[in-house]
Design goal:
The chain is α+β, with helices and mostly antiparallel strands and 344 residues long. The protein has six helices and 22 strands. The protein has an eight-stranded mixed sheet, sandwiched between helices. It has a six-stranded mixed sheet with strand order 17-18-19-20-21-22, with helices on one face. The chain has a two-stranded antiparallel ribbon with strand order 2-3. It is globular, with a radius of gyration of 21 Å.
């Protein structure tokens, strides 16, 4: 058995993204100062992470797998577990599971006098965790629930209605149990721990991702869901300004520094909060016209400024030109140095 230690980041082709984006996709596998190790020989995931609906936005796609691994960290520790992409739920299987005769077979609902035929389950994501000898220790499944159901108004435009959280929880609980039973009955995983995370996706037009709202783990065919404490907040929002003033000020100061050195930068940022404390800051810098020299310059300035910005949490900064990632900067918590990755 061979193994590869993942350093600060591993550049992988993430299934489920558009071909044009694959070369620039970055997957971070660091949690709590520990690293998952990828079991080798490396196996591609079998599903391509089939998504049933285009109502899920790109911000959700970036978060679903990343935070599923973070939740998995509680049960499958990086110091004794090896990561592998999902090897059970193939794309053909997911197409069948997610059709209107199986996981998405629901009665019509009425919200504000609008009748909707709901599609609640948007996607299912699978991650596997192995022991050192390659035996399966556990499976993590991300069950993606869509709270925003689409309908066509009298003018022929698509609009959305938000489903009540109580209804969504009932749907999620039922489908989580069905999914666990399906895994036990279909594959040779009868004695394997299965964790299910329930992800409520964001509105298709939101610039923030959704979040995992519930999760649970089981060794049998039943599962009990508990609430998670992860929240995502825009760093220059009124909420962060009111409740996390220091985080707000640090982000505002970083934006000012960047705008002082270059014009026409569009800067956004959000933080991951766990139990009301910031655990990670993610910043995106986008410009219509950043050449390689300017990208190197911005990267250099950021590397210097990050020494005193969000110093006690991990920070990731993506530099984009016309929405295409050109560079990524990673500053590990409590570190004075940063790692810079430039993409041609």
């Amino acid at each position: 058995m061979k193994k590869i230690i993942l350093l600060l980041c591993l550049i992988l082709m993430v299934s489920g993204c558009d071909k044009k984006d694959e070369d620039n996709k970055i997957v971070e596998l660091q949690y709590d100062d520990e690293y998952y190790t990828v079991y080798t020989p490396f196996k591609e995931g079998v599903s391509n992470n089939y998504v049933i609906s285009n109502s899920i936005n790109s911000y959700d796609l970036e978060e679903i797998e990343r935070t599923l691994m973070l939740l998995s960290n509680e049960y499958f520790k990086p110091n004794n577990s090896f990561y592998q992409q999902g090897q059970y739920l193939k794309e053909k299987t997911l197409r069948t599971l997610l059709d209107k005769e199986h996981f998405n077979k629901f009665d019509k609902i009425k919200i504000d006098n609008v009748t909707i035929n709901p599609t609640y389950v948007t996607a299912i994501y699978e991650q596997n965790f192995l022991s050192s000898n390659g035996l399966l220790k556990g499976i993590s499944l991300g069950l993606v629930i869509n709270p925003y159901q689409k309908y066509i108004n009298s003018y022929g435009s698509y609009l959305y209605k938000k489903v009540d959280d109580k209804v969504l929880l009932e749907v999620a609980t039922k489908k989580a149990k069905e999914l666990v039973k399906y895994m036990r009955a279909t594959y040779d995983v009868k004695d394997v721990k299965i964790m299910v995370g329930i992800y409520f996706q964001s509105h298709p037009n939101d610039i923030m991702p959704g979040k995992y709202r519930y999760y649970g783990i089981t060794r049998d065919t039943d599962i009990t869901l508990e609430k998670t404490n992860y929240e995502y907040q825009i760093l220059d929002s009124t909420y962060v300004s009111t409740n996390h003033g220091s985080d707000y000020e640090q982000f505002i100061n970083l934006k000012k520094e960047l705008n002082n050195i270059l014009n026409n930068l569009y800067i956004t940022g959000y933080g991951t909060y766990n139990n009301n404390s910031l655990t990670e800051a993610i910043v995106t810098i986008n410009s219509m016209s950043l050449n390689r020299s300017k990208i190197l310059y911005v990267s250099q300035v950021l590397s210097e400024k990050l020494a005193n910005t969000f110093s006690n949490v991990n920070v990731k900064i993506y530099i984009k030109t016309n929405e295409e990632i050109k560079a990524m900067i990673f500053r590990r918590q409590n570190s004075l140095g940063s790692n810079v990755y430039i993409f041609d």
